[in-house]
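Task: sequence in, structure out. Protein: DYW domain-containing protein.
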Amino acid sequence: MRLPPVRFLPSSAAPAVVAANARIAHLARAGNIEGARAAFEAMPLRTTASYNALLAGYFRNRLPDAALGLFRRMPSRDLASYNALISGLSLRRQTLPDAAAALASIPFPPSVVSFTSLLRGYVRHGLLADAIRLFQQMPERNHVSYTVLLGGLLDAGRVNEARRLFDEMPDRDVVAWTAMLSGYCQAGRITEARALFDEMPKRNVVSWTAMISGYAQNGEVNLARKLFEVMPERNEVSWTAMLVGYIQAGHVEDAAELFNAMPEHPVAACNAMMVGFGQRGMVDAAKTVFEKMRERDDGTWSAMIKAYEQNEFLMEALSTFREMLWRGVRPNYPSVISILTVCAALAVLDYGREVHAAMLRCSFDMDVFAVSALITMYIKCGNLDKAKRVFHMFEPKDIVMWNSMITGYAQHGLGEQALGIFHDMRLAGMSPDGITYIGALTACSYTGKVKEGREIFNSMTVNSSIRPGAEHYSCMVDLLGRSGLVEEAFDLIKNMPVEPDAVIWGALMGACRMHRNAEIAEVAAKKLLELEPGNAGPYVLLSHIYTSVGRWEDASKMRKFISSRNLNKSPGCSWIEYDKRVHLFTSGDVLAHPEHAAILRILEKLDGLLMESGYSADGSFVLHDIDEEQKSHSLRYHSERQAVAYGLLKIPEGMPIRVMKNLRVCGDCHSAIKLIAKITSREIILRDANRFHHFKDGFCSCRDYWIQVSKRPFDREVHHPLQANCIWSIVLSRSWVWSGVVKLSKSSCTSLVHFVRALQPAPPEAPLPFRVELKSFDWAPAPGEVELEPKLCQTDPK
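Result:
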């Protein structure tokens, strides 16, 4: 039965119906569509307006099928019903044709609202040609229609066309003036923006704020502040705009001063201030703002996580992300990308899988940036198969995804596959960028493909507009040097058009280490010491080279020189994840671990099996002039071997053992782990500072190119994926099992900050990402400790 309109309802019923309609609209706008539906169903009398309110609510809450079903069941429809239908169908690009069809099928004369609803849909989805065509066909236009098209033109960067439309507007309100003003600012035409601002017959706080933001976005922060000071009225948006201007200009101190002067601290301002503090490295200040906030949104958590991530407080970032989920806050794109970066740096695969699951729940698996970060995470965690599956499932692929896969294959020692992806990328019509060429050259370098590397390097200037930079030359020096062409690599450095930097000299010096060329190494070391006088890496590597060629006296002098200059080499650390806990080991110190007795038994057992397989320690990787037995003993306790032994003890058979190391794996350990993988019939994946090594059946994926010359030579702290201050944050965190205290090259103040932060107890409502099991730094074996032995599969029947 068709219900009568409101004017025919009994006078006593009309107010109740109007109130119920308002309640439906309110609940729908608040996202409570179930409540809106319940209120609609509970109405004893309904009007067309009741149906219209629920119809609009369905579309607003992305339930188009329910909306269309309701529209078909409506006992009567008015123009507002059709307008709601057109507006709802315009929300999605694929239903825009249906919206146009609905406009054409209205049984009443369409109003300007009807046309403007479809116009807004065209503009929203960037279909400006259709929008302009519809605008020209409109029998009637109002200031809203003009403003909608004006915004579309400005968003597309068509500022001159927008200005012509603005001049044609018969009635320009403050919204249109402000839109045109913002368009000029976004296009960098700040002089025209100011002229328009001065012409405005009437300004409101939004207009003033737009002009202030325009100055700030275009680097005129001082002019923005002057305008801010003379504003007749300010609100929290204008304060925040000025604050963001300072932060974008890098004036964090001025931003902090303004922040403290604000009468109120809205969420947006707090978030911006946290971002600024994070960019400046002031993590404690960011955390103070975070902890004082009474209200937080997803941007708040994202800003705090980002501050932790970009300053290498990696465990704190993980803990904060976990707390955010525990509190029911839905992650946003920046927080997901930040936490994936953290998982990649720490190589915590299990936690990365949890983040992937959260991405699927939040429908972030269709965002190209999030998926690119996800691929990188899987690659750096050693799970190349999963990275490949994610890569092949996603379309369309962007340049970052292609680059991640090329670099990933290269880092895993799969040079042929990396070059195959490189060629597939070009066949797909994607133009390589500078990073793509770095990945392809790295693939050639890691697999010794000199001919292919030369062809790719030469093609940069022939087939693309990209000129080789220092990074590309360092790849070529690396490729030539590790292929034994050290002299040719040296000549390339002499004749290159760009000034060689520390990375290039480091690549040459690494090649000298591989091929024991002390003469060229001394030249490279001298250049490195001129560029980075405080870096201990060149001294340490030169000492290694002297040792490898038997120049013990020179090596001793170099070590004494390092000690006299108080230069510390970054300590060798390896870690392995097991049961949501990360166990960290340092070279030469195994006794501090809670299960040190079992680990020692494994190492001793492995030593015997290695000897039976014909292995003998390579003493050239020991810097000190000691006898061979002492050298062998020293090599046995390198951090990567301890981690592998613990993996054999804990990781079930059939599962790969994944070990991460902050420095390059030493050559002797590389040889030993190859044999261990064969003896135990286990797959061992080792990520060092530069690449992955997949050990299986006595072979390594790097084909024994184990000395990798990094794009970050000598593990320099400012570029190393696991920096020294990051190690403090990790090893002192309660979710790590620590195996010894190390001296780090970072300043004692920085280290102390991480030490104090790590010892602060976490709130009970903030569960840590791993189980807490750090009792002290000076462990002793637990009473009655059971010494476990792994099941070893020996090749010798004895």
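Residues 480 and 524 are 15 Å apart (CA to CA).
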